[in-house]
Amino acid sequence: MRMIVAGNWKMHKDHTEAKALLGAMKEMSIPSQVDVMVAPPFPFLAIAVEELKGTSITVAAQNCHEKDHGAFTGEVSAAMLRSLGVGACIIGHSERRQYFGESDAIVAEKIKTLLQHGLIPIYCCGERKEERIEDRQFEVVAKQIQVALGWADGQALRQVVIAYEPVWAIGTGLTATAQQAQDMHAHIRQLVRTQVGDAADAVRILYGGSCKPDNAEELFANADVDGGLIGGASLDAGQFAALVRSAGSA
């Protein structure tokens, strides 16, 4: 299984800072068994595609609309992303759910649209703090997976990347233990296996809760952790490169 390290910049960096970070990323040494993705804000996607041309780094978007076109002011379609040279898109991030009311039903439509346009969906799922405290994390994630991906066959799921993001560990300084991460990743893989059988072995599941250079090695060593969806550490070229190296040695 090839590892993935995907950097989600969220709403950070201006034009000059974005170009500088992309320039530094071009100089990274990327292990042959690791796929690297970077998801800048929408205004910098075209810049990222141009700056990273000739490298193995895939440019990803942070969101897209489920429709191909229409009167949806402020939205961006998968077709537009594809026409730019973008290769992947983050879907269903907890911040999209929390601040913009995205449901798994909407997310399911976005995933279908991305696949139709040949883009890799990075589908995010995970429980909130109160759900973890109530020991409902497995139930919550199972429901999310069922609604967002329950329609998919093995061929479709092989093209989807799943990112487990414990919401209570995003931007809080908290991190799931390596065992907590492995337990949930194994749960997710079993859910996919029940749905599509052995195709589950080809589905890559990333950890997305405050993964940093000092905990990445332990997290990436887990059997069902296939890399990371990185937030804050992706804004620093040195830290991001360290995470890529950790994935390469996992």
Structural class: alpha/beta
- The average pLDDT score comes to 95
Summed up, the domain count is 1
What is the CATH class?
A: Alpha Beta
Radius of gyration: 17 Å
What is the architecture at the second tier of CATH?
A: Alpha-Beta Barrel
Order of helices and strands: EHEHEHEHHEHHHEHEHEH
Structure in words:
- With 250 residues, the protein is α/β, with parallel strands linked by helices.
- Helix content is 43%, strand content 15%.
- It has 11 helices and 8 strands.
- Strands 7-6-5-4-3-2-1-8 form an 8-stranded parallel beta sheet.
- β2, α2 and β3 form a beta-alpha-beta unit.
- α5 packs across α7 (137-149) and α7 (137-149) runs parallel beside α9 (178-196).
- The radius of gyration is 17 Å and the shape is globular.
